[in-house]
Write a structure and sequence with these properties.
454 residues, nine-stranded mixed β-sheet, 12 helices, binds thymidine-5'-diphosphate, binds magnesium ion
Length: 454
């Protein structure tokens, strides 16, 4: 007979406790420990299962003897998603898609489900009714034949349906609404998430069917549930963006079958998510009339070059302590660049408010945008627009030196493609200038830059 037992789990990190506590000693969070009922098998039964399992010969391989099989992938036709996944969905893989509420996770997956021709898709939703899903599909407006919708939350019943339908892809929206009969606690709790995920992983590996899970995100931006969830799945994708902006970015946080440096860009429209093939053209707002405080940076997201617009506003501080604020850029890095300008180039920015904004609501971590940030600040400080049609790609060091960046050729090619006349880079970058039509200015220090531009 199975005996019930309760365990206290931290809902944040998944740590187990035998009694309740106010603070989790593992992750330091307060009020995250919740009691969950778990079914505990008596020792004898567990032992019996072990013995039964031992009947099978364990599979021991010499690595050279394992037969080679090329991974087979399903090309979804959604180019941005395919690229972020490393070239399509690998058969038998489990993909977790995380993102804030309302960002467009369900829309993205339904769109993928509808656009897969000649493949059967089962879309399991515990969040919306069948009519709601139908409405959404009408909004997206893609005709399809073999997309099945199941509004069910019990894994056992889901698996019963998969036996009949035999889908080529299983989509689950969301893992937090799913429950397994084998565990007694409520859906969304640590033990349920762990159980349902492992059942789905087992299903994926046994039937070689890819499974895509939607995961909710906590206030802090981590995928709700234990960290172990991210360890269990093959791919973790993050869907992000400012809700008030139309752009949505898809990144891979973990990918067992490809790189994690790729970025997919979408635009949320009235008829679903549209892939953005040429982000540079959209991210730059006003190329024709120059304004002070604007500078264009040639950045790389993953392996994709992209030109983005940086806007700065420098104004005299009204209050004693000047304000510094940055949207889409690291505030600490902004403070560092301001200190470099102050100390190495002699600009009196200590008593100025400085606001920095990357347009389009995207977030960039590439250090190669430093130079454009500095130029935008100087342009606003001098109240003088930068020369027309120029862009920047270099890092700025603490001593005011302009440092080389990686893959500078790709950045130059992108700038050239978009019709820029001149690009400013570090003089330490090795560039064969004969290869390009665009004028390439090579700079040594921030002082050189100032003299050249103002
Ligand atoms: P949704 O996919 O429901 O988000 P999630 O599953 O991540 O919670 O997306 C909801 C938002 O997207 C909602 O605010 C409406 C908007 N939306 C559009 O702008 N256009 C569309 O065609 C669709 C389907 C949704
Ligand atoms: Mg949803």
């Amino acid at each position: 007979m199975a005996k019930t037992k309760t365990i206290y789990y931290c809902q944040n990190c998944g740590a187990q406790y035998s009694n309740w506590m106010g603070k989790c000693t593992n992750c330091g969070e307060w009020n995250t420990i919740v009691e969950e009922v778990v079914e505990k098998k008596p020792q004898k039964e567990i032992w019996q299962e072990e013995v039964n399992r031992k009947d099978k010969t364990p599979v021991l391989f010499n690595i050279n003897e394992i037969p080679k099989t090329g991974e087979t992938r399903i090309i979804t036709g959604n180019d941005e998603l395919d690229r972020v996944l490393g070239g399509g969905i690998v058969l038998g893989s489990v993909i977790l898609l995380g993102g804030e509420p309302g960002i467009g996770k369900s829309t993205l997956l339904l769109q993928v489900a509808l656009s897969l021709k000649n493949l059967k898709v089962l879309y399991v939703s515990g969040e919306e009714s069948a009519t709601q899903i139908k409405l959404r599909s009408e909004r997206i407006g893609i005709e399809t034949e073999e997309c099945y919708v199941l509004t069910e939350t019990q894994t056992q019943k889901v698996f019963k349906q998969t036996k009949d339908i035999r889908p080529n892809i299983l989509i689950v929206d969301s893992i937090q609404t799913l429950e397994s009969q084998l565990v007694e606690s409520a859906p969304g709790s640590v033990s349920q998430i762990r159980q349902t995920t492992s059942e789905l992983i087992k299903f994926a590996k046994e039937t070689n069917t890819p499974v895509i899970l939607v995961g909710h995100i906590t206030k802090e931006g981590a995928i709700a549930g234990p960290k172990i969830l991210e360890h269990m799945v093959d791919v973790v994708l993050q869907f992000e963006g400012e809700r008030n902006h139309i752009f949505r970015l898809l990144r891979a946080k973990k990918n067992r079958f490809g790189s994690t440096s790729e970025l997919g860009i979408y635009e949320m429209q009235g008829t679903g998510l549209k892939e953005v093939r040429n982000p540079s053209e959209i991210l730059i707002s006003a190329k024709d009339h120059a304004l002070s405080g604007n500078a264009i940076a040639a950045t790389l997201e993953g392996i994709r070059p992209m030109l983005i617009e940086i806007q700065a506003l420098v104004s005299t501080a009204v209050y004693g302590t000047p304000q510094r604020s940055a949207t889409g850029f690291d505030l600490k890095r902004l403070n560092m660049l301001l200190a470099v300008l102050e100390k190495r180039a002699g600009f009196q920015l200590g008593a100025k408010d400085v606001f920095l904004n990357i347009t389009g609501g995207i977030r960039v971590d590439d250090p190669a945008i430093d130079l454009a940030v500095i130029c935008a600040i100087l342009s606003s400080y001098e109240n003088e627009p930068l020369p027309d049609n120029c862009c920047f790609a270099a890092e700025v060091g603490l001593s005011g030196e302009i440092r080389p960046v990686n893959r500078v050729d790709q950045r130059i090619i992108e700038a050239e493609k978009l019709g820029y006349d001149v690009i400013f880079v570090s003089k330490n970058n090795k560039i064969n200038t004969g290869n390009f039509q665009i004028r390439i200015e090579m700079l040594g220090t921030v002082g050189d830059l100032y003299q050249m531009l103002f």
